[in-house]
Amino acid sequence: MDNISAELLWDIFKHIRSWLANLNRAGDERKRESVAALRGIITASRETAVYIRQMKDTGTHNYDTENHLSLLWTELGFALDDLKLDKLAKRCNIKGKHWANPEHYDENFIKKADISLERMEQLARVMLININR
Prior knowledge:
This protein is mainly alpha-helical and about 130 residues long. It is elongated and about 80 Å long. The mean pLDDT is about 85.
């Protein structure tokens, strides 16, 4: 340690300080991304619920809306995958695939996947509470 100059120690300290600051920012960024994705689950659930209500009221399907919902849920799945929120990401991907092709999965699989709008929103809310602690 005697051979290390004060200047070198100062440079190392500045580097570590900078690295820690970047790490903290990365943590905050990840937190913001997580919050945004989880809030996206809640808004997607609500948007999907409105469309389901519209289908029931009118008795008609709108394939443009179903395409939008498929992409919305799929994109949320990708965002959650990136954040390593794997279980919720998988549910979103199943939801997206189901909107793209309702016959792709059988009814038993859909029940076991537990992708109801209520369940998806509940999981997102619990995760949001844990992030904000």
